[in-house]
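Consider the following input, taken from an annotated entry for NADPH dependent thioredoxin reductase (Auxenochlorella protothecoides).
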Amino acid sequence: IIHRRDEFRASKIMQKRVLDNPKIEVLFNSVVTEAFGNEKGNLGGLRLKNTVTGEESSIDVSGLFFAIGHDPATKFLDGQLELDSEGYIVTANESTATSVEGVFAAGDVQDKKWRRAITAAGTGCMAALEVEHFLTAHQEEPSPTPHSPPLMHQQHLPNCPGDGPSHCQHCHELRLRLERLY
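Applying the prediction step yields:
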């Protein structure tokens, strides 16, 4: 693992797993400056630069996986919602509610600890339930006499493609669909 800082920011248990694993070598304070091939045309190695000393070195590798951090895409919300120093949306404890009433956040823009698809899905579900509760608590009373469009009372709908009995069936099905909207 090539890491640009002098320590990991992951959870202590994950750090311990990596550092205690004899199959994993960690190079702290280092960045990859170049990947180069071997005589077969495959990846053969990496050029590294130490971020503290500036010293350059090379290592042989046959594979490379990039994990270069995560910046939440929340810059457009700056000044509108409370964001922490790293740009994550601040939510209430054990909630997805933000600093603005009626605005909820979920997923990687709000979860800087776990950042996993399963936890994003979980907070998405939480947010959906909280939105439902919020809307229920803030809904307006329904109007006492729902209205229907004028064409609902016509015997046949305009531009009906059917003839004879199918004409009436088509109009009936359209009326049923329209009634659900009003």
